Automatic annotation (TrEMBL):
<keyword id="KW-0560">Oxidoreductase</keyword>
<dbReference type="InterPro" id="IPR024084">
    <property type="entry name" value="IsoPropMal-DH-like_dom"/>
</dbReference>
<dbReference type="Pfam" id="PF00180">
    <property type="entry name" value="Iso_dh"/>
</dbReference>
<comment type="similarity">
    <text>Belongs to the isocitrate and isopropylmalate dehydrogenases family.</text>
</comment>
<dbReference type="GO" id="GO:0016491">
    <property type="term" value="F:oxidoreductase activity"/>
</dbReference>
<feature type="domain" description="Isopropylmalate dehydrogenase-like">
    <location>
        <begin position="4"/>
        <end position="328"/>
    </location>
</feature>
<protein>
    <submittedName>
        <fullName>Isocitrate/isopropylmalate family dehydrogenase</fullName>
    </submittedName>
</protein>
């Protein structure tokens, strides 16, 4: 049966980079069925709703969704969309590419971030004029689910080394948060052990120092929600260029793929946005749907174009979105 992919361009450069990503997906002979859906600021202006029920339903019932960006309505769009696909892990690769100015050119790390609980579980209270509290939620089930995903991810050779026995690093602060991060750490390490996957551990603060000093020592990194959010942004800073970073929100039988960047209002509508992050998000989508080799081919094509050009303005070039996309498709 054809895989159904919901395509939500959204606002700003989403309208430019998502079509580029679709063009790359269409370069393969796969029987994808693309279904367009609306969300974002323009949709809200037209219909009163940033995320119409039809779009939510479409994403919830599709095999995967490719999303661009939303402007002021971003939170009203992306949070429900992550719920629509019941995402439990956020996948964020940070790779430095030859030809792109990076603070740490040896960086090649993939963050697997827990996507449902921790301090982002929404349990905040104002108890008095002076006192607010936050309840941190960690369950064995969510921790194990993340770890199972990490083991499979590594076993499929999807880590930076492409090596089935590459293992992963679990980052936590279990020396202080003994109960919550203690549970997280214990469950992740126990799942790794069950799967014969090598798992190192690193305290979050030590990791935050070691990563920028020597990113080459890390590959796949497994984190609780907040740590993953902050540390993956730190890694993004090491590789340079918001236009390069893809992400995936993976659920049980559904997933949502999106570039890390936003609508880039300063360059929207000019046809000069860098399509790389969206195209690499499409590569993650291909892998998710089982087309692992095709996903790697997209990455190789992108790597070649980043190194030899053409390049968009954010990377010091003068090429348009279409020219870069055509160059990527050419290499496929
Ligand atoms: P939003 O509120 O939608 O996140 P923003 O103003 O934060 O919008 P971002 O999209 O996050 O903008 O981008 C921040 C900066 O990086 C902008 O200057 C933008 O032009 C640049 N940028 C982001 N993505 C790209 C891209 N794909 N190609 C070129 N430049 C980009
Ligand atoms: Mg932004």
């Amino acid at each position: 049966m054809a895989a159904e992919i919901v395509v939500i361009e959204g606002d700003g450069i989403g309208k430019e980079v998502v079509p580029a990503a679709v063009e790359v997906l269409e370069a393969f002979d796969s029987d994808f069925e693309f279904v367009e859906a609306d969300a974002g600021d323009a949709t809200k202006a037209a219909t009163g709703e940033a995320l119409p029920a039809e779009t939510f339903e479409a994403a919830a019932s599709a095999d995967a969704t490719l999303f661009g960006a939303a402007g002021e309505t971003a939170a009203d769009v992306i949070l429900p969309l992550r719920e629509a696909v019941e995402s439990f892990v956020n996948v964020r690769p940070a790779t430095a590419y030859p030809g792109v100015d990076a603070l740490r050119p040896e960086t090649d790390v993939v963050f697997l971030r827990e996507n449902t609980e921790g301090v982002y579980s929404g349990h905040e209270d104002r108890l008095s004029d002076d006192l607010s509290t936050l309840t941190r939620v960690v369950t064995s089930s969510a921790s194990r689910e993340l770890a199972e995903f990490a083991c499979e991810f590594v076993a499929d050779g999807r880590g930076p080394n492409g090596d089935a026995d590459e293992g992963f690093t679990v980052v936590h602060k279990a020396n202080v948060m003994r109960e919550t991060d203690g549970r997280f750490r214990e469950e992740v390490l126990s799942v790794a052990d069950e799967h014969d996957v090598d798992a190192d551990e690193e305290l979050m603060d030590a990791f935050a120092t070691k990563l920028p000093l020597d990113p080459g020592q890390y590959g796949v990194v497994v984190c609780p929600n907040l740590a993953g959010d902050v540390l993956s942004d730190l890694a993004a800073g090491l590789v340079g260029g918001l236009g390069l970073l893809p992400s995936a929100n993976i659920g049980h039988d559904n997933a949502l793929f999106e570039p890390v960047h936003g609508t880039a209002p300063d360059i929207a509508g000019e046809g000069i946005a860098n399509p790389t992050a969206a195209v690499l998000s499409a590569a993650l989508l291909l892998e998710y749907l089982g087309h692992v080799e095709e996903g790697q081919r997209v990455r190789d094509a992108v790597t070649g174009v980043l190194s030899d050009g053409p390049r968009t303005g954010d990377l010091g070039g003068e090429a348009t979105t279409d020219e870069v996309t055509a160059a990527i498709v050419d290499r496929l």
